[in-house]
Automatic annotation (TrEMBL):
InterPro entries: LRR_dom_sf
Domain of life: Eukaryota
Protein name, per record: Disease resistance protein rpp1
Length: 78
């Protein structure tokens, strides 16, 4: 059962956390290597994004619109 849950994350291509006021940090996303679209717009309390996002080779869209408190991208580069 645990393996099935991990496989589900590996198959994910889309994540939308837009308007989520509870998110403060985007954690390590290395278990989701097929993400193409990551929406984080208007996450008012987001302050940090893990550097693993910079290693998502298939990432095409990354929306950080109005994430005004964002302070650290932890060396995210592409």
């Amino acid at each position: 059962m645990y393996y099935d849950k991990i496989c589900a994350f590996k198959a994910a291509t889309y994540m939308d956390f837009s308007w989520c006021e509870l998110i403060r940090k985007i954690p390590n996303l290395s278990m989701t290597p097929n993400i193409k679209r990551l929406y984080l717009g208007f996450c008012k309390n987001l302050v940090e994004v893990d550097e693993s996002v910079g290693h998502l080779d298939k990432l095409e869209v990354w929306d950080l619109t109005n994430c005004d408190k964002l302070e650290a991208l932890l060396a995210v580069s592409r």
